[in-house]
Design goal:
mainly alpha; 305 residues
Length: 305
């Protein structure tokens, strides 16, 4: 028997089996998002039912286990779209898992960190054979120079916050990835609560994402304004404003970022502005406190008189 031939065949079979091991349809994550993510504000934002997905955490764990089981050599053998879809889904799924560790006692992902420890730097899962944090996935792998050089990932990696581009109600998959990324960009830029042209100031007010990661966008188009130019008709309704954006002659202003959890407790208010009932309650408490203080002050003044 030619043992060299046997070893070559066995190696080929092992490689083939390994290549077939991972489900590139991301079926478990796809099923969970389809079931528990709902589009809001005309499809420009979404909310996740954390209570419902927590009840199915066993299914989420199976998916996360499948992600963690992928070894670096297997990943390296995939096509670029397969790699990017894998990383984006991993980032989003592990972000949800992080929120679930303290849910429902977490109003923002920032609550899971501290003054000296960022929640994005916690190494709480294994990916590609090494302990990873969310920052390791996004900045260390996806945004690594020469890896993908794809600025649209900023509209795909979801940080479990209202200010973040929407979590999709489907998994990213290689054969649809380009269309999914483009759709995510269009949905986000069409949301007037987070990106809009201000006719009074003649400025294009956009998400702070374009400030934080401006280099990613300018490296592809020269400037952030130039990258946004091709989406001019999504960012404004006025013909003059659209023309100004399209010519990249508009000045940019960056809006505040809303870190409140993107949960099913949120609601849509006029103007496509998502406001959390938690914030609304705080506002109401503030109003009540002001009213009570005013009343007490009035009573005190009258009593002293």
């Amino acid at each position: 028997m030619n043992w060299k031939v046997v070893l070559v065949v066995l190696g080929a079979l092992i490689s083939f089996g390994s290549a077939q091991a991972f489900d590139h349809s991301h079926a478990r994550w796809d099923a969970l998002t389809k079931k528990h993510v709902v589009w809001l504000a005309g499809g420009h934002a979404s909310q996740l039912d954390y209570a419902a997905i927590k009840a199915e955490r066993a299914q989420l764990k199976l998916y996360l286990d499948a992600l963690s089981a992928v070894a670096r050599p297997e990943y390296d053998g995939w096509k670029k779209p397969e790699q990017l879809a894998f990383l984006l889904n991993a980032y989003n799924a592990y972000t949800v898992d992080l929120i679930l560790t303290e849910y429902p006692n977490v109003k923002s992902i920032k609550d899971l960190g501290s003054l000296i420890a960022s929640p994005w730097k916690k190494k709480f899962f294994t990916l590609l054979g090494k302990p990873h944090s969310l920052d390791d996935v996004e900045h260390g792998t996806i945004r690594a120079p020469g890896a993908f050089d794809e600025p649209r990932i900023h509209m795909a990696a979801n940080c479990a916050s209202i200010g973040c581009p929407a979590l999709r109600n489907e998994a990213f998959v290689a054969d649809k990835l380009d269309a999914q990324l483009e759709d995510s960009v269009v949905r986000f830029l069409s949301d007037r609560s987070r990106n809009r042209f201000n006719t009074q100031t003649n400025r294009l007010e956009v998400s702070r994402i374009f400030d934080w990661y401006g280099k990613d966008f300018s490296s592809r188009s020269g400037t952030v304004a130039a990258w946004l130019a091709r989406y001019a008709d999504k960012l404004a309704d006025d013909a003059k404003a659209i023309a100004s954006i399209r010519d990249a002659k508009v000045r940019l202003a960056f809006l505040d970022y809303d870190w409140v959890r993107n949960s099913n407790l949120s609601m849509t208010l006029p103007g496509n502005r998502l406001v959390s009932p938690t914030l609304s309650m705080r506002t109401l408490r503030s109003i009540w406190a002001t009213m009570i203080s005013t009343c007490l002050s009035s009573i005190s003044t009258r009593w002293l008189r």
